[in-house]
Write a structure and sequence with these properties.
With 92 residues, the chain is an alpha+beta fold. It is built from one helix and four strands; from the N terminus they run H-E-E-E-E.
């Protein structure tokens, strides 16, 4: 049985698309695990922090920054909403 060139090219295109999707998800740090809890913290200065930035504790990545808000009042503060991994304990 002979396979036509169109079928060979179609199989190759599908394999390349699956490989590209796999590599994109693997290297893109996409998080599909919902095992995290939210923690709201206030800072006066958050230079260089952006949404989806990693949260580190003692050099280990323990979560991500979900949201950033500016709180106006007597003194301006920044409120960060962090998504922290479920097994991580944060001290005050």
């Amino acid at each position: 049985m002979k396979i036509s060139n169109e079928i060979k090219i179609g199989i190759m295109v599908v394999l390349v698309l699956f490989t590209l999707a796999y590599l994109t998800i693997k290297t893109g740090n996409y998080d599909f695990t919902p095992n995290r809890y939210e923690l709201k913290v206030h800072f006066y200065n958050i230079d260089g922090v952006d949404q989806n930035a990693p949260v580190r504790l003692n050099g280990l990545e323990i979560g991500r920054v979900k949201d950033i808000k500016v709180l106006y009042g007597d003194d301006e503060k920044m409120e960060l909403t962090l998504l922290i991994d479920d097994g991580t304990k944060i001290r005050e």
